[in-house]
Amino acid sequence: MVLQIEDRDRVRTLTLDRPEALNAFNEALYDATTEALRAAADDPAVAVVLLTGSGRGFSAGTDLLEMHARATDPDFVPGEHGFLGLVDALVDFQKPLVCAVNGVGLGIGATILGFADLAFMSSTARLKCPFTSLGVAPEAASSYLLPRLVGRQDAAWVLLSAEWISADEALAMGLVWRVCAPDDLLAEARRHAEALAARPISSLMAVKRTMTEPLRAGIAEARQRENAAFAELMGGPANIEALTAFAEGREPDFTTLPPGW
């Protein structure tokens, strides 16, 4: 099992459960989370979804060992939904989504916050969008959602630098709504999720729809641009060097790449 699901007081808690991999998304976890979000959307007894991670990580993003296999192994078999299916589910999710970032969040473990209605973060957690360090492009409409959420220059730093963002920095720039002591994080996130869940589901969905509907076209266009750029860069010299370095346990060296890479 890669995902724990718990229902209480009209809040469905989804806990990413690959702690040995810091809850990195392999194909199985992408599929399970996608299906869980779709099921929660369709369940009239669920008002709010609370997403968190088990162990020390929120999510270390896409599993890089599996990404390496996908880029280099012609026999690699993808999952049913994959990364794009998860983003589709996030775009289409019409109920409040609360994220409790309990530990490190990389890649989709950070960009998913662009879809969160409320985001809570442990004071010891950190976030990173490692796209340039992997030789790839942004994902999950983050090139559109993050500038709207935190402003252009903070978004530029987050997306271009591949540097760690502390909880205090994330709070200051508006990437998360509250920073909590580690032991208080889940209880605080759940308290707010339950406060929302006590409201009429139809009204919650109407409020979210009116807030997010104006963004849908921009999200779709951003995803097209990002997916095209990602497809162009995936498996390219910079990406292969980054993934090979990860598999070999060393830092990538981009200085030896061909001109323009």
Model description:
The chain has 261 residues and is α/β, with parallel strands linked by helices. The protein contains eleven helices and ten strands. Strands 1-2-3-5-7-10 form a six-stranded mixed beta sheet, with helices on both faces. β1 and β2 (11-16) form a beta hairpin. The mean pLDDT is 96.
Strand count: 10
User: How large is the share of residues in beta strands?
Assistant: 15-25%
Strand order of the largest sheet: 1-2-3-5-7-10
- Structure classification: alpha/beta
Helical content band: 40-55%
Shape: globular
Keywords: Isomerase, Peroxisome
GO molecular function: delta(3)-delta(2)-enoyl-CoA isomerase activity
Subcellular location: Peroxisome
Pfam families: ECH_1
Question: Could you give the topology of this structure?
Answer:
Blueprint: E1 3-8, E2 11-16, H1 27-42, E3 48-53, E4 57-59, H2 64-72, H3 82-92, E5 97-101, E6 104-106, H4 108-111, E7 118-122, E8 126-128, H5 142-150, H6 152-161, E9 165-166, H7 167-173, E10 178-180, H8 185-197, H9 201-212, H10 216-233, H11 237-248
Helix pairs in contact: 1-3, 2-11, 5-6, 5-10
Keywords: Isomerase, Peroxisome
GO molecular function: delta(3)-delta(2)-enoyl-CoA isomerase activity
Subcellular location: Peroxisome
Main attributes of the structure:
10 strands; ECH/Chromodomain_protein; 2-enoyl-CoA Hydratase, Chain A, domain 1; peroxisome; 261 residues; 6-stranded mixed beta sheet; globular; isomerase; delta(3)-delta(2)-enoyl-CoA isomerase activity; Enoyl-CoA hydratase/isomerase family protein; 4-stranded mixed beta sheet; alpha/beta
